[in-house]
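Re: the request from the purification team.
They wanted to know what the chain is likely to look like in 3D before they choose a buffer screen. I agreed to run a prediction and write the result into the notebook, where they can find it.
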Amino acid sequence: MRKYSAVFLLSFAIFVIAILNYQPGTWLTGWDNLHPELNFALNIKRSIFAVWQEYQGLGLLGGMGHAADLPRQAILWLLSFVVPTHLTRYTWTFGMLGLGSFGCYFLLKKILNNNTSALIGSLFYLTNLATIQMFHAPFEAFTTHFGFLPWLIFFFLSTLNNPTKKMLFWFSLISLLSTTQGYVQTIFLVYIMVLFVIAFTRFMQERTFTHLKRIILAFIIVLFTNAFWLLPNIYFTITKAHVVGEAKINQMATDEVYERNRAYGSLLDTIQLKGFWFDTWDFNPSKSQTAPILNTWREQANTPTVEVIAFIFFLIILMGIGTIFRYSKRESIWIIGIFLLGISMLTTSTPPFSWINDWLRQTVPLFYQAFRFPFTKFSIMTGLSYSLLLGIGMTQLFQLFHSTGAKKIVFCLIITGIGIASYPVFQGHLFYPAVKQVIPQEYFDLFSFLRSQPKSSRIANLPQSNYWGWTYSQWGYTGSGFLWYGIEQPIMDRAFDPWSAENENYYWELSRALYSKDATALDAVFTKYDIHYVLLDENAISANNNRSLFIDETKALISQILTITLARTFGKITVYKRNSEVAQSFVSLKTNLPTVSPTYKWTDNDVAYQELGDYIA
């Protein structure tokens, strides 16, 4: 196949997927989401000064790679001059889908110099089940990892082979642009593992000091281009990593989510690239019922035809492994290393791989917490190794047929197989329907109002009927929240609890005061935590029972607190204002404070504060 024909067909496939999966007038929002487009200036500033996240509740040491998103934010800001705001996240997500697919194509071209096999491998990377699961409820760290990983490998290899100034520049630039993958630090760690596998296998082949210097140079580039977010994160890991493990959310979820991963940790599931997403259910606010988020894909992937196609592809992948060993392609043995790494990390219920995972979880506490979701961390890397080996295996398969006609038939059959296995994506099922929503105007009106209010006025957002930090709204939203991207004031949302014990303790005190209907205690909680605005969003609904939201009871309690008055109403959003002094720059000085002991790690009823006010513990 001619080069430009392959590029055209790949471009056409990406374009068709984008058109069929975009819903006009909607925002791509929900689940875990980043929305800097709601206020670019504010969020870029936060990324520049990312060590301390003042807006996250009481302020906290940044536990995520917040600064890592800075290059993406700058790109989206420039893009916003020509693309409507609600389209920017769609554009980035589809852009990463295309960037990764072309990266796989050119990486295979570099390895094989065969357009047809490169096209097949890139189409598989575009549509395999790992890709579908990671884009179904897209999060920027994962989609960016998908988009840049093939290119990072491409330029890393080029740097090892021929480290010219031009090549070093391009590798540095790609490394810098890809840093959003570091927003979830463990994704960056997986990337480092991939580079280490490549470097180790190449060094064992070359075994020269020159090659070692090139490896060191390449890793220096990686570390320097990521240092602006990596160093603060290392500091957090050293000083505050224990907070993450102690958070109530993680105490309740870590073992459960790992067991859900183990349920799809068989070798058969890994061969098909099935993960825990296949057994992930979500509450649908529009229908008030719970359903699997991958419902269409579950039905598709479990049909005998698709299962047979998956195993045929895996046989070709194994043929690719054999080709590397048998036909002087030893320079590509790193692909087998990545393949084995992926298999080892995903087959969490299959010995001997499960023994490795269990041992790491028991002996390395950080591994226990960081890789509780092994599928989200290792599936894209594994899918890429499958794609590369599939392309290499196809080269060998084509050589078994001597006539051009037979080769064309094989090509058409493989492309048809890819199309059948991924058919729902061409029906508009790339994204979970709940993440395509029209955000009501009342939220933008709220943002405009708060823009004119004191920036150090902390906001208590209600209702908060549970500690999970997951929001469901009548208008269809389901996810971790988005308000803080549009406002400068700190907000006491549960999404920030895993990185701050103080933020979580606020929730327990707030919850006790609310559900005991104690207006005096509620006022004390608001005073203690320096709350100046109370935001009651009646769009919220509960996946259990709406009575748990306590909305009417909350209104009654607020009406009993004389220092709270109605400020503004925006549709179903009510903003109350507390008539209290606003501390400048979140700092105030107090003298002659009483001393109270013993100290406590957490409490839901700070009697000392209710009786004495500010005190020293």
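For the purification team: The first helix runs from residue 3 to 21.
Please add any questions underneath this entry.
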